[in-house]
Amino acid sequence: MTTFKELNLSEPILKSIEQMGFEEATPIQKETIPYAMEGKDVIGQAQTGTGKTAAFGIPMLEKFDRNIRKVRGLIIAPTRELAIQVAEELNRIGRNKGIRALAIYGGQPMQRQIRALKDGPQMVVATPGRLMDHMRRKTIRTTDVEVVVLDEADEMLNMGFIDDIRDILKGVPSERQTLLFSATMPREIREIASTMMKNPEEVKVKAKEMTVENIEQYFMEVPERYKFDTLTNHLDINAPELSIVFSRTKKRVDEIAEGLQARGFKAEGIHGDLTQGKRESVLNKFKHGRIEVLVATDVAARGLDISGVTHVYNFDIPQDPESYVHRIGRTGRAGKMGEAISFITPREIGHLQVIQKVTKGQIKRLVPPTNQQAQLGQQQVVVENIVKAMEDRNLKEYNESATQLLEEHDSVSIISAALSLLTKERKNTPVRLSSIAPISVQRSGRGGGKGGNRRSNNKRFYGKRRGQGGQKGGRNRKGNFQNRRGGGRKRS
After folding, report:
1. Residue ranges in 97-249 assigned as alpha helix (H)
2. Strands of 101-104's sheet in order across
3. How many other C-beta atoms are found inside a 10 Å radius of the C-beta of residue 409?
4. Angstrom distances, CA of residue 421 to CA of 64, 310, 402, 416, 418
5. Residue 144 CB partners (closer than 8 Å, separation 6+)
6. What's the rounded Cα separation, in Å, for the pair 161 and 128?
7. pTM of the entire predicted model
8. Best CA proximity match to 307, nearest among 290, 288, 323
9. Of the candidates 90, 79, 77, 164, which has an alpha carbon nearest to the alpha carbon of residue 121?
10. Count of helices and strands (H, E) across the chain
11. What are the b/e assignments for 301-331, b being 16+ CB within 10 Å?
């Protein structure tokens, strides 16, 4: 595994990445970023959900100057949903450097886009049809473009945009860097790569066959602000012997660990800022049961091999399927069953579906437990402990006291008092956590734009629904700039 710090990125970019909750680069990022930062053309073959936006976005953001208010980076995306998402992510990564990205797509008023372009964004993320409209009007001037990215090129091929792509590439300076990303490499995409790219480096990240055995996988759809209460409620109900909670940032690890302590749990956190001595001390306490909940980042959990972990909680979903498998693999060991529970915000459902497809596992939905269920769950744990003690222990020395109690009080009152004394008192101390951006993948819907766009007969594409319909006004066969509108699709 490679951390972003190992990729020699600038402090503003590293700060943004950390604020977004990432420490480790995904395989496509680890392979692509060094080539792209050297100015080389790159062909990246990877599935959706593997972190392609940061793979091409980080080198561009490192290259551009906030004081040059011209379009220097052009990202072409197949749908308006993806264009919006990519622009949002680029703006999050570039905020500490002052670099801005603008999404341009069909269905939005042209004059509003023209006004936004006059404000001088350094990057434009656009759908093909609307980009060609702006090129024809000269409201987007391509003379200063230094980097062009084709995102999800095979999707654009299937949607009938391949001639548009050729026209756009002919309209930007030949002395440019070109980055092409595609899940598959059909003949037409290979042709573009061979004719319009300069000695490209190829990066191929094939999804590994990742299967998970002996682990029951679940998810709960939980808004960000309710995650912590959901975690403590689940811990109260299930009372795991040893559990690991994964979060994406060091700051959140500290906050979650402190919050759990405030609510009466024996918890501590580990992350990359701890000294080796402190890390070993925390892990030693966890191994010997003096800590019941370990809160960790992915980096800190590298090589973690502790038997007896019954539950893994993905408090923040990881950014790629491999990290997910690595995390949940901390449980279900030595032939024993384990449970993995992921907290998913509504915007992250699409990303969860990508993980489920790659891992070929079934991740079942759970309803988040309520406070009342947690209180009853704690009592049930005590009841089970009492029954176990009755089965396993010699209780003769307590018989005389028990008989005396039964002579003076009714049995229900005695057992209720025992449950009251043995049940852990619930602490509802308020806990506030710093926020991080959700991870989402673009999912384009059916139906959409007016007019006839060439369609694909394929129904599915790596976990995303293919759209049908498309540009307003259609597209003429000669590939010129006449009667172009739109370029995106409406989500159904």
Report:
1. 110-118, 128-137, 153-158, 162-170, 187-196, 227-238
2. 101-104, 123-126, 73-76, 147-150, 177-182, 42-45, 201-204
3. 11
4. 64, 26, 16, 9, 5
5. 68, 70, 71, 72
6. 7
7. 0.64
8. 288
9. 90
10. 17, 18
11. beebeeeebbbbbbbbbbbbbbbbbbbbbbb
Encode the chain (492 residues) as per-residue pLDDT tens digits: 788 999 999 999 999 998 888 888 888 999 999 999 999 999 998 876 678 999 999 999 999 999 999 999 999 999 888 899 899 999 999 999 999 999 999 988 999 999 999 999 999 999 999 999 999 999 999 999 999 999 999 989 988 899 999 999 999 999 999 999 998 889 999 999 999 999 999 998 865 555 567 899 999 999 999 999 999 999 988 889 899 999 998 999 999 999 999 988 999 999 888 887 898 899 889 988 899 999 999 877 766 778 789 999 999 998 888 888 888 988 887 668 899 999 999 999 989 998 888 777 789 999 988 877 666 666 677 777 778 778 777 787 888 888 888 888 888 887 777 766 665 666 677 888 888 888 876 544 433 333 333 333 333 222 333 333 333 333 333 344 333 333 443 333
The three-class DSSP label of residue 339 is strand
In the block, tokens 């529970």 appear at 341
Number of residues that make up the chain = 492
- Report d(CA 131, CA 305) in Å as an integer: 51
3-state secondary structure 147-176: EEEECCHHHHHHCCCHHHHHHHHHCCCCCC
Give the other-Cβ count within 10 Å of 210's Cβ.
16
Contact 131, 487 (CB under 8 A): yes
Question: Could you please report the per-residue DSSP string of 363-427?
Answer: EEE-PPPPHHHHHHHHHHHHHHHHHHHHHHS--GGGHHHHHHHHHHS-HHHHHHHHHHHHSPPP-
How many angstroms separate the CA atoms of 488 and 82, rounded? 9
Start-to-end CA span in the chain (Å): 39
Phi, psi of 86 (to 5 degrees): -65, -45
Given a contact cutoff of 8 angstroms between Cβ atoms, the answer to whether 434 and 455 are in contact is no
Residue 286 is encoded by which pair of tokens?
A: 């966890």
Q: Is the dihedral of CA 369, 370, 371, 376 positive or negative?
A: negative
For residues 448 and 89, is the Cβ–Cβ distance under 8 A? no
- State the Cα–Cα distance between residues 104 and 414, nearest whole angstrom: 71
**Tally of CB atoms within 10 A around 83:** 29
What angle, 0 to 180 degrees and rounded to 10, lies between the N-to-C axes of helices 128-137 and 162-170? 30
